[in-house]
Input
Amino acid sequence: MPVYSKPTNEYFEKRTLRRHARVLHLWALGVAAVISGDFFGWNFGLTAGGFSGMLIALVIMTAMYAGLCFSIAEMSPALPHTGGAYSFARTAMGPWGGYITGLAENMEYILTPATIVVGIGGYLGAIFHTSKSWEPAWWIVCYMIFVSLNIFGVALSFRFSVFIAMAALAVLMVFWAGAIPHLDFARYAFDVPSKGWRGSLAALPFALWLYLGIEQLPLAAEESHDPRRDMPKGILYGLLTLVACSFLTMILSAGIAPGAAKLGQAQEPLVLSFQTIASQTSAGSKWTELFAVVAVIGLIASFHTILYAYGRQIYSLSRAGYFPQWLSVTGKRHQTPVRALVSGSVLGLAAALAIYVFGQNSRVGAILLNMAVFGAVIAYILQMAAFLILRRKIPTMERPYVSPLGIAGAWATTIIAAVTLVVLFLNPDYNKGVFGAAIWFAMGIAYFAIYARRRLVLSPEEEFALKWN
Output
């Protein structure tokens, strides 16, 4: 049985967050967290499944995220704690369920910015014409800058998220408008042979990348002025924005030169596609370089906001004793989880550097992407299990918002996520990283079994859950 300690007032005074977010901030946080997927990562799905396979995979993933987002839009205002997914699962399935869900989401949020920073390195390399050996230096600089920005305060972080989400959307709109006159699907989109249903399955992790991160919004519950009203709106408005972006970017990018084959192997896919648009002008190379500079905004948007996510996620699990308690101490001046932010960045950067050093420098981004998806789909399966259990176990719980997709939506999400989890282990190009992530996951479970479950703290998430158990 778990063993709890009763914290003093001083314990929570050292772990205080500041309320700032409203609907616009939450929408921006959700969009910014995901928007990098339009600039880097999804394109590897063109190699895995061809254009038709990637398109089918995107439709499937859109359905999965609809079920996921409607479900968490119901749970989040009913359980408005920073713990997010861990809080849902803790109330529904006890400490073990809460911890394993939190651990899976923790892997997702630590590995996602590591994946994104590889994309940033590729774009910066194209801008400054540096060799691939420079890429790790770009990664380190980006972590240093944006961890610092997150540390300097929640108000600054949310304002920056709004600005950068708007800027990233503006960049995409310029690309979409410029691509339309150059569309030639017959010539470019299908230059990768169709791979049938196997191709669609292989493309699932890359299609998921176009939405991964929207589910982080419940982590902002304790920094939202009115999470019961604002959280569902922020989640669902964000999802609608991302659905439009995903289909427009994928279809318009693949339908122009250089074609799906080259696009599927690029570290800076939109820059490669934009060359087609810019080539019609007298200063084509200059416009392409300018676009690359501006396109980095999209990657930075997600990098910055996912750093926010893992900072809060580590903070909540540490505050409850699942992770070492010293990680949840917040800064005295800005009341941000400094130690959580720094520790998460060290782990993510270490994973990227390890893959780079051990001979996989040409595929670091794709390998990290699959590792992040491994954590994500496990977290999704467990969150949907929590949703189903809460519906059955605590039907009287006040639910300010009720999912219109209900139980059917949760089951659909569970099935698609489970299929994606299996697919991750079947792709020989990337499954070594997935097996490594599985070992990491197993070590985390062992840590809880041996040590942490006897040192839990009555945090807000734990006290709320105990009322229903």
The chain has one domain: 4-467. Residues 107 and 375 are 5 Å apart (CA to CA). The longest strand covers residues 4-5.
